[in-house]
Inverse folding.
């Protein structure tokens, strides 16, 4: 006999709205309405917050969405009030309320401001747009730093002569343009991270509603502040307090984010934990991740090695590094051996023992998994070798150890690369599964802060034909 059938109906907001039960013997169906769920759903608080929170909150978003939004709302409130104080200063500088003010001068000043701002937008987007996704937390905070810089310049401008005031306001507008590019891009990336259910459009729409309410509250409170704060000293005290609060709230907001994709710093923190047999999740790594300073939680030797790593290097850089290890004939042999060693991989890795500079070449179409594997290989290579200052010209490894526990026996870097590659290939499959279980998304890896070069292997027969 078939068992009884029970169906639970879930509403669009994620709450249970009905239960249907089918009796297998009689074929009768009865429905039950969970009154306690309905009553809790129709409370005043839920009704008031539903226009501002995504459906299914908090299950439809990541755990770090709530603290981020709280601090983001507070910083927006402080920024709105500070913006009104700065706007008043700009109006004074432009001569609003003054009989001697020139409409033509004001219009020309406005055109100059807009020109500098729009040129800055184009230049900044061209130069830094590819870096924002890799260092989204830094650029989210950077956006508010340049925004506050713009507010300070606005408040300084009235005390300057006309030419200097025009230049100051132009720089101020350029700072706002940088804020627009960095802030807009980083917010879009964070929305993708927060949208656990893929509800990015709804999340952005609700975020816009939140910003609208916060801006209105800030304008109302700012109107009171502007009406009652007039003196220069009082204005600056109020402005600096607001800007300090704004940056502190922004720092807390950005610091609460726990990204699940790997950039170079998160990868370095993660793999340093693996060295101690610890698989850290995004929450633990995010707590150690720096915002303004990179690799702050790593020991000095590891941090220095990661800073000397070039990801997406050119083939010419690889040849240059390899040739430095010996004479020309030996160096060319090493290049051939290296290409053969990494023939099955989507990357090529080499560390120059004379300069401790590392280059990582990436194959065209390399996957996120392979990028993470390449970074893990680099960390393993650092583990097995102590990369000293360039003037020592040696690699420390082996069983002859000094007081620091490291060897003074030179090791062929090609042998070292082969040895560590074998270890990585042995460990990576099981390690990647453990990392995914810990919450990491290895399919989308952002190790590069700029779009680097790619290499492509050609069939041997094609090379002969071309010659």
């Amino acid at each position: 006999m078939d068992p009884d059938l029970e169906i639970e109906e879930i509403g669009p907001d994620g709450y249970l709205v009905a239960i249907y039960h089918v009796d297998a013997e009689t074929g009768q169906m009865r429905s039950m309405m969970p009154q306690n769920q309905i009553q809790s759903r129709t409370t005043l608080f839920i009704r008031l917050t539903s226009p501002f929170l995504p459906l299914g909150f908090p299950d439809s978003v990541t755990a770090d969405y709530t603290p981020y939004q709280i601090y983001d709302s507070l910083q927006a409130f402080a920024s709105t009030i500070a913006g009104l104080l700065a706007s008043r200063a700009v109006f004074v500088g432009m001569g609003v309320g003054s009989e001697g003010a020139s409409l033509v001068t004001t219009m020309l000043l406005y055109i100059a401001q807009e020109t500098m701002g729009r040129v800055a937008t184009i230049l900044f987007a061209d130069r830094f747009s590819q870096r924002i996704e890799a260092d989204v937390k830094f650029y989210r905070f950077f956006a508010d730093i340049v925004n506050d810089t713009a507010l300070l310049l606005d408040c300084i401008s009235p005390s300057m002569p006309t030419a200097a005031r025009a230049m100051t306001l132009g720089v101020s507008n350029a700072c706002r343009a940088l804020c627009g590019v960095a802030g807009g891009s980083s917010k879009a990336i964070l929305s993708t991270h927060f949208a656990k259910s893929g509800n990015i459009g709804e999340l952005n729409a609700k975020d816009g509603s939140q910003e609208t309410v916060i801006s209105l509250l800030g304008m109302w409170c700012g109107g009171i502040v502007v009406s009652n704060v007039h003196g220069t000293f009082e204005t600056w005290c109020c402005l600096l307090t607001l800007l300090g609060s704004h940056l502190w709230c922004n720092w807390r907001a950005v610091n609460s984010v726990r990204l699940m994709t790997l950039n170079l710093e998160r990868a370095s923190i993660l793999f340093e934990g693996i060295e101690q047999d610890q698989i850290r999740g995004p929450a633990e790594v995010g707590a150690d991740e720096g915002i303004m300073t990179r690799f702050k939680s790593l020991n000095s030797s590891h941090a220095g090695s990661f800073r000397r790593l070039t990801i997406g290097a050119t083939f010419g850089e690889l040849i240059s590094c390899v040739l430095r290890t010996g004479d020309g004939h030996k160096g060319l042999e090493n290049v051939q051996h290296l290409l053969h060693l990494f023939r099955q991989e989507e990357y090529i890795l080499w560390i120059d023992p004379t300069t401790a500079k590392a280059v990582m070449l990436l194959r065209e179409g390399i996957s996120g998994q392979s990028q993470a594997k390449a970074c893990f290989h680099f960390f393993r290579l650092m583990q097995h070798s102590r990369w000293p200052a360039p003037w020592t010209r040696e690699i420390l490894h082996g069983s002859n150890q000094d007081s620091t526990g490291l060897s003074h026996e030179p090791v062929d870097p090609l042998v070292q690369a082969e040895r560590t590659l074998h270890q990585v290939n042995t460990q990576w499959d099981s390690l990647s599964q453990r990392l995914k279980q810990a919450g990491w998304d290895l399919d989308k890896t952002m190790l590069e802060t700029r779009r680097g070069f790619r290499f492509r292997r050609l069939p041997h027969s094609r090379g002969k034909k071309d010659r």
